[in-house]
Amino acid sequence: MTLPRRAVLGGAVAAASLPLAHARAQAAKIRIGVLNDQSGPYRNTGGVTSVACVKQAVQEFGAHGFEVDVITADHQNKPDIGAGIARQWYDTGGVDMIIDVPTSSVGLAVGAVAKAKDKAYVNVGAATADLTGKQCAPCIVHWSYDTYMLAKSTGAATVKSGGTTWYFLTADYVFGHQLQRDTTAFIEAAGGKVLGASRYPFPGTTDFSAFLLQAQASGAKVLGLANAGNDTVNSIKQAKEFGLSARIAAMLMFITDVHALGLHTAQGLTLTESFYWDLNDRTRAFTRRILPKTPNNWPNMIHAGCYAGTLHFLKAVADLGVAEAKKSGAGIVSRMKAMPTDDDCFGRAHVREDGLLIVPSYLFQVKTPAESKGPWDYYKTAQVTPADEAWRPLHEGGCYFIKS
Prior knowledge:
The chain has two domains: 29-145 and 280-359, Rossmann fold; 148-274 and 361-390, Response regulator (Rossmann fold, 3-Layer(aba) Sandwich). Strand 11 (341-343) and strand 12 (347-351) form a beta hairpin. The strands form four sheets. The protein has a five-stranded parallel beta sheet, sandwiched between helices. The chain is of the alpha/beta class. 44% of the residues lie in helices and 19% in strands.
């Protein structure tokens, strides 16, 4: 049988295209899921700016023989919603690593899903130290900060400077409880005393007046804020309006919160972060690159951690190979621990055996309006805690796979 010339050519073209089409269909791909609060009290401390920082890391990582997709979702600060999204992403969404996940109750719920499914999980937004302690897993990395680091830096320094009696205003969920617990330990170790505490419902509380009156009545020298995000901003504003005499110790506060307050209100406050945009040439370089995408929300340590954590994960994938990286969350995290980190936000560092990134912590004091020389020029360094002193000792966390 003789075929027409057009049919022969058409068949040849189709046959020639099959390997290319097959190659495209089988192209190696890594998918990253950014799970955080995009509509509630933590939308500015993480939110869409965290997403932009993850995408910035992907862009800068470039082509290494595999594609990278980024998807996002809002967990609404609800553990069941966060765990449900994580389960769907890992099971049917093709997600290889979940990152960010503020709100400690949600962060721990997602950690349990990641552990059960042996999938990589880089938490940045949640503060709970249990992620590398009692609820650790070989597939979990914790970046940027935790309750122990915050308590040691801000709490201990406040007592040493005369803040010997405390009253806590505490968000009533696992993060607030742990931050109050860890700070109390450092207060008492330094010779201070906690006179009382008020726990308020989270999320949803906007009026802190009754709690602030209780703090005033206690006679404490320090009001310790074991909260974050908009709750911190609102409680500080209301404390200033009431003329609260106690010194305010914001146990978890970000530069985005300082911006929301304004320097007139925030001046003199002390807080701890592991990143500040104006620390050095590398942090300034990163900030210049990300600002065109987030011009009204300059990066804090959560945003920086989302960038750096994503970059290090992708480096480990390239080193291990996509096929191997996708087999096991514990496997890819093991490679992340074996490789030193190096990025413009935190410099050279390492991920410890329990999954904790080990970097210095910085106690900052908020500048006065007269001291600030430009946009977001808000911090001056009061104290630096070296990396090997800033974090809970490895064998004190209770992580099950850390052998003494």
